[in-house]
Amino acid sequence: MGGKCINKPSYVHFTDKHYEVHGSLAIFGIVGEEEAFYGEFDLQEAAGSLYTHSDGTIFGQIDTLNIGTLDPATYRNKIGVTAAQMQTQLQTLVSDWQVGANKNLTAGTVIPEILGITGKIEANFNQGFVEVGIDATPTTGAQIRDFFAGFLSRKRYQTKKEEMAAINLQFV
Questions:
Q1: Contact indicator for 53, 110 with CB cutoff of 8 Å
Q2: pTM
Q3: Rounded to an integer, what distance in angstroms lies between the CA atom of residue 108 and that of residue 74?
Q4: How far apart are CA 2 and CA 73, in angstroms?
Q5: Digits of tens for pLDDT over the chain (172 positions)?
Q6: Backbone angles phi, psi at 3, to 5 degrees
Q7: Torsion of CA 13, 19, 23, 26, to 10 degrees
């Protein structure tokens, strides 16, 4: 599964303890070497408030989480799901996740270990930017370095696969 920004630039706006995200995104799913679905979503939005304590606990609320509108004209699939069904299923999945996330954010949640990276994380939302700090050991620093190096390697591989697929389409 993957995605890319389309149509118009996506943006994020931060103020003190508040965020807004707006975007347009194309998503696709591949099974084996074959495209299972592709869809373009416009008018995606998320908004809410987040803040952290110095112990790494995150509090807040996700007020809006909308996947946007799936354009039926660009929708393709080989899984037997219409554009309307895909829109409904994805929004339901996202809305259910939002309910669970809000429950955790109200009580306070700690960012879990992410790919072996641990540490107390603090995020401060400011006018126009987010300040993030992590209480890390040298081992955590090495884990973060390894994570980003692996991410870059996977991104290069994915880009190369997409380029090869585009070349192969010329001969079909």
A1: no
A2: 0.63
A3: 40
A4: 20
A5: 777 777 777 777 777 777 888 888 888 888 888 888 888 888 888 888 887 777 778 888 999 999 888 999 999 988 888 999 989 998 999 999 999 999 999 999 877 666 555 666 666 666 666 676 666 667 777 777 888 888 889 889 988 988 888 888 888 7
A6: -160, 165
A7: 130
